[in-house]
Amino acid sequence: MKARWWAVLLVLLAGFGVLGWGGRQIAENAPPVPQRILSADGARLVEPGQILRGQESYLGHGGQHIGSVWGHGAYLAPDWTAKALHQWAFHTLEGLKAQGLSQAEAEARLKTLFQTNGYDISSATLRLDPVQAAAYLKTRDELAHVAVDGERSAAIPARWIPTLQEGERVADFWLWTAWAAAAHPAGADHSYTQNWPQEPLVGNAITPISHLWTILSFVLLILGISLMVWHHARQPEEAFPDPKPIAPAPATPSQRWSALYFAVAMALFLVQIGMGVLTAHDAVEGNGLYGLDLSRLLPYAASRTWHLQLAVFWIATCWLATGLYLGPKLSAKEPKGQAIGVAGLLVALVVVVVGALGGSYEAILGKLSGSFMLGTQGYEYVELGRLWQILLTVGMVGWLVLVVRALRPALRGEKGQLGLLKLFVMAAIAIPLFYSAGFMYTRETNLAVAEYWRWWVVHLWVEGFFEVFATVAIALLSTRMGLLRESTALRAVALSMGLFLGSGVIGTFHHLYYTGSPSSISALGAVFSALEIVPLTIVGYELVASLRSGRALGSGYEWPFRYFAAVCFWNMVGAGVFGMLINPPSILYYGQGLNTTPIHSHAALFGVYGFLAISLMLFALRGMTPDRAWDAKWLRWGFWGLNLGLGLMLVLSLIPSGLYQITQSLAHGTWYARSAAVVQSPLMRTFTWLRMPGDTLFGLGALAVIVFTFKAVGGVWGWRTAEEAVKAPRRELDPAPAFRVAED
């Protein structure tokens, strides 16, 4: 094995070693969950298990899709941590002033009360000052009534939490997250959440060390960019090869079924767009659609859950289908029974998708809220019930088996060398392996630990190993079409894997700055997430190379390469430029849970992974679609509609609304930036309505791609091989006998 692969292996081992060490640190330093909360005068506020039951209830009703906790979740409705902390602090301040303290004395005493850690580890009991305890009860009552009675402007439906008693338990959970956001662990000069959210009443302000790590992250980013440009400039310029497009050929039986995966993916894409429209509209009408009340039919939490789940489902389906198509293509042979396996897997996938969407819907409406297996886990991006998660993982293992058995003849040709095919198989193995990290927590797990494992799935699975899989797949196709020599492709893949995974694995920590993690996590997350931007500095070369390759190949391949060029562009803009809106601790401190995050998520999730899924789909379809069914005009309209629509959505709506919220956060605190006074202000409503031009153009572009896909899939299924044409009954070739029978 060449030195570069040993280097990649060492980078991975080091990265996961640090990630594992960080997980242990998070578990050891996670905010404790009190079994009891008592007032210093003996009054009982919380009994054993109440906070945990509140967490289970909150998540069981789709919690992270109505507001957020510690900044993670939906952007409509309050951040419950910030709201609970502010209201609790305000009522405590009023209680202190009622005792005769001056404003200054009351404010000083308030900070001391909230920053002092009254938790006793031996008895698992938290003791509060009587004034703070009275304010706790008052705040709990207010929050419980919001959870039960609802708030239309924030798209919280009435009876979201069915009973007042259950609402109080949910409020206990929110207040626990607020306590952890203000109380200082023993020996620390900051809270469990690194003083997030900003709250002047309790003295929560950004820590100086956060500024230090932000500065160092920018220094290392500049150094990394310089080294990357220097390395790229040192590479010898290779002559552009004489490319040869892979001529379309009738699909094998299993490849036909893989084409149907793409049709299913596009159907899911269409539904996802519809859910996104409803979710955005709820920001101005609150569970309504031009006067139609949707609070008990399709509430905000349900439409947002579906919007995010469907994004993962349709993108992953395209990637999985590409793997199923490439197996027989690269081996030039289809194993016996492969078509039955591919067809069966498609049916299983549909069952899982329908079950997951239906279960989360019923849970949000209160019918399956207690079912962790069938309803919803409640965590953003990993909402599906545990049963559907298990079945999806089993399905991915089945997919891996199908891909490997199809590639086996071609793998023998590499003769022990580490080539692109073996790398493709390794990347495929990583897909079910890292998705299984989602089994490491439940609704009862300490929230700090659950967030750690959740981001293994969201960041490592989606942004890490699916990207490696796609990189190797594109390299394989490029070598087979003569665009790259395999030695060149292997060097490029090794460099990409080393850079993306070397920074990305530890960069997972940048999602965990303020989720009950120690300050060491912030340091590592800040540095390595900034380094994730380094390889994107030469993305312009990839963009130009993609367009050049597409033009050189022609024969319809210019469109897969153009969509891949869009991936390169949005990787630079969405993951790179807008990624810096959430990577540095000093910036994220004021922007966590605000509309600056969806700027990055929309531009990166669809701009990078959505376009990449479409690009892979087009590569596969071009190889098995007859020319008569390859209608490129739909791809042209789709390309410009999707790109311009996404750009307008960002420029006219998400960017200005996010920046406006940050100004309010800087001036007044996180609670205010997420309050109705800001989120429901005329200016923010205007920004929401300004999404319409971009959303409309994006929707039309998506429809064009969907129409193209269905026409292409129809062409794949209607294109018979010569052998099938010979075996076909004569009446299919000559319809005349049927007419003669009718005449008789």
UniProtKB/TrEMBL annotation:
Domain Nitric oxide reductase subunit B cytochrome c-like: 34-198
Coiled-coil regions listed: none
Transmembrane segments: 212-230, 259-280, 306-327, 339-361, 387-407, 419-441, 453-477, 489-509, 521-541, 561-582, 602-622, 634-655, 697-719
Keyword Membrane: yes
Keywords: Membrane, Transmembrane, Transmembrane helix
Pfam (any one): NorB_cytochrome_c-like
Name of this chain's protein: Nitric-oxide reductase large subunit
